[in-house]
Amino acid sequence: MCVRRSLVAGVLLSCLASPAAAATSPAALPGDLDGWIARAMTAFHTPGAAVAIVKDGRVLFSKGFGVRRLGSPERVDEETLFGIGSNTKAFTAAALAILVDEGKVKWDDRVIDHLPGFRMSDPYVTREITVRDLLTHRSGMGLGAGDLMFFPDSDLTREQIVFNQRFIPLATSFRSAYAYDNVLYLVAGQIIPAVTGKSWDDFVRDRIFDVVGMKHSNTTARALVPGVNYATPHTTIDGTLLPVKNDNIDNTAPAGAINSCVSDLARWVMVRLDEGALPDGRRLFSKSQANQMWSGQTILPIADPPEPLAALKPRFSLYGLGLGLRDYHGRKLVSHTGGLTGYLSYVAMVPEERLGLVVLTNGDAGETMDAIAWRVLDHFLGVAPTDWIDAFGRVKAKREKDAQEALQKAQAARDRESRPSLTPDRYAGAYRDAWYGDATITSQDGKLRMRFSHSPGLDGALEHFQYETFIARWKDRTVPDAYVTFSLQPDGSIRDVRLKAVSPLADFSYDFQDLLFTPVRTGP
User: Which of 403, 437, 468, 498 has the highest local Cβ count within 10 Å?
Assistant: First the structure.
């Protein structure tokens, strides 16, 4: 939703490609594909994975690897369901494309013409933002702004999240910069019931899943119950890879809630490669809308990748409608990643080669997914092979080393002799953030605890760090610890409370830094 989440996150593999021309792509599978996948899973401690490859309108490969859950014998197969996170966004864009074909929506319609109560924090943006803008990460909001309304699980409804959107301040001017977001995809999804009377979930099921033949896919974590063939998500907690519960993000489903399998996604990819044409001659959406979704809308910044990945730097990188666009060895690559806690996914298409790829995993190591994807793409584009397992492994090791050094540096600079200015009971009280809502800080036996009103996972003890800063150790250990800093008024009362993730590796969807809690005043 993006390192671990990418719903989220969706950090695109399109952000990192060599400009060299490619030879004619082969039609046969890599001879060592099964072994390569197994090696990547072992190297990066991934319990289960599933991979599909389509070429020239047929499925060349569709297979599961490993186990659905550590400690259990059930194996992953081509029909095993995984959360696909932000790869859901392409389905939301396609659903709107269907409505554009039907004349019920236009890409450049103003959002308020379909959702009259919708507001952004800037009146100008409220008036001008279009359906297209909702899908292209250029609204002016900061990276992942507002994600704490649904990550970790919250009790806020879709309608409440859309309403609270108006209180999220903008980080840049409208349409001036790329910053990945999830909340506006929820807003885009809410246009569907506004114009059809049918929920996003029902529309996607009836108009996409059923039509494409995706008979296993669904749009809610509630469908992943005992007896269903699904992979349990796994994440690393205090250094140990463990099974964890499924994220329930039904309240922002259009941004990332679809669960699918490689057999279904192979069908989806073939329809996308055929520009919306179905095998029986019907169309899911018109060729015109296919072109719209695969046309660049927002320019993405191109950074120099780490040295082991230098060959993955593109000449261009853009965001279309629900998918990223870039070049790789002279070919246009259309792709997106997705992530939830313990799930990662990658969908890629090379239109000129009629080549498609799907990788799903139930671990939190993106390197498994990356190493498999680039090995397959290199093979079919006729590129000299690179040991991507080694390359991504070196980058992972350095990133973790740098993060550990940053944490050690923060600890070394800490003033261990400092003490809080106030007694514990004077920090206690009710606090409110404009877009998230309420949190409470309680004091019991001299110990402080912070609880967010809408998110059970955001409940943690506050340990003093230095001066007016504490560290929240959340009860849900999949949630990264956060610094909690109090600012005082001249009279010693609390002016506000700000938060920031402790680890440099924390996913951007934990946008603690966007919160500004102020005391809720009671009485006269």
Answer: 437
Q: Is 444 left (phi over 0), alpha (psi -120 to 50) or beta?
A: beta
| Separation of alpha carbons 287 and 146, rounded Å | 34
Q: What share of the chain is helix, strand, coil (3-state, %, to 5)?
A: 30, 25, 45
Given this model, what pLDDT does residue 523 score? 55
Pick from 133, 9, 149: nearest CA to 83? 9
- Statement: the pTM of the whole predicted model exceeds 0.90: yes
Tell me which long-range contacts 394-397 makes (C-beta under 8 A, separation of at least 24). Answer: 394/306, 394/308, 395/306, 395/308, 395/309, 395/367, 396/44, 396/365, 396/367
Sheet holding 58-66, edge to edge: 58-66, 48-55, 355-361, 343-350, 331-340, 324-328, 317-319, 298-299
How far is residue 420's CA from residue 499's CA, in Å, rounded to a whole number?
17
Kind plus residue range of the DSSP H or E element containing 35: helix 33-43
Q: Average the pLDDT over 62-76 and give the result.
A: 97
Q: What is the pLDDT of residue 521?
A: 80
- Residue 484, H or E segment: strand 482-488
Q: Report the alpha-carbon distance of residue 331 to residue 115 in Å, rounded.
A: 39
Strand 82-83, strand 459-466: pairing: unpaired
Three-class secondary structure assignment of 141-208 = CCCCCCHHHCCCCCCCCHHHHHHHHHHCCCCCCCCCCCCCCCHHHHHHHHHHHHHHCCCHHHHHHHHH
| Residue owning tokens 């090995």 | 375
What's the rounded Cα separation, in Å, for the pair 381 and 87?
A: 23
Range 358-377 burial, b when 16+ CB lie within 10 A, else e: bbbbbbbbbbbbbbbbbbbb
Alpha-carbon distance of 522 to 430, in angstroms, equals: 9
The domain 13-398 belongs to what CATH superfamily?
A: DD-peptidase/beta-lactamase superfamily (3.40.710.10)
The per-residue pLDDT for range 488-500, each reduced to its tens digit, is: 999 999 999 999 9
Dump pLDDT digits (tens) for 438-484.
999 999 999 999 999 999 999 999 999 999 999 999 999 999 999 99
Beta bridge partners of 355: 55, 350
Query: Residue ranges of the domains in the chain?
Result: 13-398, 424-519
SS (H, E, C) 414-456: CCCCCCCCCCHHHHCEEEEECCCEEEEEEEECCEEEEEECCCC
At 254-298, the pLDDT tens digits run 999 999 999 999 999 999 999 999 999 999 999 999 999 999 999
Which residue is listed with tokens 């959406």? 285
Token pair of 408, please?
Answer: 């050690």
Distance CA 443, CA 461 (A): 10
Give the whole-angstrom CA distance, residue 520 versus residue 323: 42
Q: Please give the class, per CATH, of domain 424-519.
A: mainly beta
